[in-house]
Design a protein that fits this description.
Strands 1, 2, 3, 4, 7, 8, 9, 10 and 11 form a nine-stranded mixed β-sheet that branches. A two-stranded antiparallel sheet has the order 5-6. The chain has three helices and eleven strands; from the N terminus they run E-E-E-H-E-H-E-E-E-E-H-E-E-E. It has 187 residues and is of the alpha+beta class.
């Protein structure tokens, strides 16, 4: 039987168990938080993103979660610089052209700021003269840094990116750096 760990990846943590790419000061990795042998991440979040990661001890389940051809929905809360208009949201919903091709249509809407929201270290930069807004974006593909590139394409640079759901798994009230075994069945 497959086992699944739900992990709330903090900002600045690599979504792997070792830091193979740095010289000098190692960066924090999953191994600083999860010490359960035999589990591997099903997908990634870049180090500047936070939120839900799913880890499993089942290679087939890992592939179903991570592989874009299975079109598993991934939902993000995105703080952007600027105020989205109908044209920007429509472009995200239709798909936008990126250097590596057109994105598939996404679900995108403006939302109220999440409450409660844990503080981020370092905090998001605040500028009195530039408004910010929050979006909820759901994708069914996984290009590198896709949400950040999509929002930038429509003139809304990403300030903070939090993944809150992968398929049926939700972040809920899991604190940054905390993990738990999932009680939900896999896809």
């Amino acid at each position: 039987m497959s086992r699944v760990i739900l992990f709330h990846k903090p900002f600045g943590v690599l979504s792997q168990f070792t830091d193979k790419g740095t010289e000098g000061t190692p960066r924090p990795t999953l191994s600083a938080f999860i010490d359960v042998p035999g589990f591997y991440p099903a997908g990634r979040l870049d180090k500047d993103s936070e939120g839900l990661m799913v880890l499993t001890d089942d290679g087939k389940l890992q592939a179903r979660i991570a592989n874009p051809r299975h079109k598993m929905a991934k939902t993000y809360l995105v703080q952007v610089e600027g105020t989205p208009d109908a044209q920007a949201l429509d472009a995200l919903r239709r798909g936008v052209p990126l250097k590596d091709g057109m994105t598939k249509p996404a679900e995108a809407s403006q939302i109220d700021p999440p409450d409660p929201l844990w503080p981020r270290d370092p905090p998001v930069r605040f500028r009195k003269t530039v408004p910010d807004a929050w979006l909820r974006i759901t994708l069914r593909e996984g290009k590198n840094r896709q949400v950040r590139r999509m929002t930038a394409h429509v003139g809304l640079p990403c300030l903070r990116l939090i993944r809150v759901q992968i398929g049926q798994w939700r972040l809920n009230q899991l604190a940054p750096g905390a993990w738990r075994f999932s009680t939900e069945n896999g896809p």
